[in-house]
Amino acid sequence: MRPATTAGGATFAVVGERDAEERMAGGRNDGATRAGSTVRRRTGEHTAGVHALLRHLRAVGFTRAPEVLGIDEQGREVLTHLDGETVGDRRPWPAWAHGEAALVAAGEWMRDFHRASRSFTPPPDAHWFGDHDELRAGEVVGHHDAAPYNAVWRPAPTASGPEDGHLVGFVDWDLAGPAEPLRDLAFLALTWVPLTAPDIARGDGFAPGTDRPRRLRLLLDAYGWRGSTEEVLRAVRERALQHADGLERAAAEGYGPAVDLVAEGVAEDFRRAVTTLEADTPWLLGARGEE
To answer: Where is the Aminoglycoside phosphotransferase domain (predicted)?
Structure first.
């Protein structure tokens, strides 16, 4: 890999002959490719804002996210590769994704990320995936897709079990955008506790009878949530419905990955999660001694 410089002085990485590219598992768009210690992905109107966020995180000492290296000669973004294991295309998910160690680490990661993001001022021309571009009072620019399938987990060198290791960070920042922190936390709870429909949770590898009230409490305590559990559950419900609506809207507009996901029933799965959540709310409120 050799560096190159644009007319404006920005440095980016160029794939050389020795940097053979390989497709990375997972992803619904055109996928990402790895070349040496870098990841290459197609850009979009959100890229400039996401890059500004990632550079800010690095500047304030938050290193558990990819680092922006620039744009390559094919017009793709170039990011550092986070070294570790990912869910990739596997289902059920690997054992570490079900463990309490990863659950707690995800909550702590989001706590620290939100703290770092609070001092970020987006560029005035930033465009985000969400429903508005401006950063409003009480909002942060969140990740909004910090699910197990976007986590990078590094097992301990002498690991004797799946929970021996640490969370390196999260990838796939395409859905980043301004919103209240609770919206980001809600999706974390939906996918890590998990609060999905029972058959989806089983398909992802969570054992029947998983103690979801306990896992919800562990997650919220790791994040440092000071509000009520009921607030979180309301936000999870809203977030799941927004996700379903967004997928269906994007599919209607012909966006390929969304068309596939809706055809596979993913939007309906999020609606079924809401039905499950409404039935289980009294049980889940007991997670932190609430009724």
So the answer is: 136-212
